[in-house]
Structures are given as C-alpha cells and as structure tokens.
Amino acid sequence: MEKAGNVRSSLLKLLWHRIDEDDLPGLSAQLAYYFLLSLFPLLIVLFTLLPYIPIPHQDMLGLIRDFAPVEAMDLIEKNVHDIMNDRNGGLLSFGIIGTIWSASNGIEAIVKAFNKAYNVKESRSFIVSRGMAILLTFGMILVLILAIVLPIFGREIGLFLFTRMGYTTEFIKLWDTLSRLVSAIILFLIFTGLYWIAPNVKLKCRSAFPGAAFATIGWIISSLGLTFYVGNISNYSLTYGSIGAIIVLMIWLYISAFIIILGGEINAFYSEKNRKNC
What we know:
The chain is mainly alpha-helical and 278 residues long. The chain has one domain. It is 83% helix and 0% strand.
C-alpha cells in the first residue's frame, strides 16, 4: 500500500512538473487547432464511405453525439450536412486523397506531442511518419465504422429476439446502458492504438493501457461535465451569439487535447519507471 502511494505521489509530482516543462496548455491549444482542421475531413470520409452500408446518416454521428456538448454537436452536424449536400459526387476519387491528408494532420500533431512526452525526437522519415499517420487515420475510421455498425445491428437483432419473448421495453433500457459501455470500450481501443503506435519509441501494447484508461475516463467525464456546464450554467450562444457554438467546440477540443497529451505523459512515466526497475 505504501509503495503504491509513493508511485501515485511521484506520478502526480511528475505530471505537475511536465505540465509546466512541456507547456501542456500550449501544446493542447496547438492540438485543438489541428483537431479542428482534421475533424470535418475525417467526418467527410466517414460520410463518404458509410452510404455503402445501409445506415441512416443520423446514426453516423451517434458516437460523437453521446459526449459532445449540444452546441458543438449542432455546429458539427450542420457543417457536415452542408458539405455533403454540396459535394459533386466525386469525393471518393482523387478528392478523398486530400481529405485523408487533411484528416491525418491531427494524428501527426498527436505524434509530436507524444514524442515530447517521451523526450525523443522524430527519427522516422517524412514518408514513414506521414504514412503511419494516414494508416492510423484509416484505422480510426474502421474502428468508428464498427462502433456505428455493431450497436445498430445488435439492437435490431436484440429487438427481434426480445419482441418474441415480450421484453421489448426492458431490452431497450438495457441496450441504451450497454451502448454507453460499448462506446467507452471503442474509445479505449482507439486511445490504446494511438499510445502504442504513435510515439517514436518501441513499446509493448500493454504499456499503453494506463494512459488509454485515463484518457477514456477523463475524456468521458470532462465531455459530460462540459455538456452539463454549457447546458445549465453558461449559455455561450446567449453571450456570444452565433459564434458561441464555435467557442464551445474549441473548448471541447482543447480539453480533449489536454487529456490525450496527459495520458501520453502518464504512459511515459510508467515506461521510464519500468526501464529503471529492469
């Protein structure tokens, strides 16, 4: 017990020191900017690929809608729908290359932040590092598609089976609860992949678990907390007018970036501790 307490104390001291030394607030602001530039291209790719699967458009944004503040979600949905309605149908040709490139900028920024957490420089070539960022982007897209497809088909299969047994209402309540759990598991898998592959350090998959668990729990709690704050305490739309939704979106992206970078710092702490113990 005493040893575990010392580890937690050392972790908190290191994180407090790293927040200032690595300028986490500044890095988070940069990452939030890249997230903003990457968000809509990533969603456009999803919207372009998913029509080949019989899923309503509203379900495509369900994973984000579960956690995003209402004002930010309204802005995301409006812009994505406007872009998709105005497209000329050729997005799956050469246009998607530029879209994927733009979407991978967010991953590229995460790689730089993680390398700083591990105190290493990027030694991989531009082609390798950018290729990895693009592959990670595709990996995130595939995971998000699974996150959308599995709950929908699972719900339909469950409704069919439970309707025959007369438990439709009970199943829907149970499924709504399980859907939140599935969303959390999907987030954990995404964060694990990022923390494992992105840094320019050879890591074992399980070494990414502490940061992934922190990022998953922290991101869900902070997102729900911001949603409650915006919805019940501070009305940004009333204060800032139409720009209020943009401010809420940027605050959400900034908090998300801060938590993701902090998760990388936690993994770096345990990685260094394990090396010293070997």
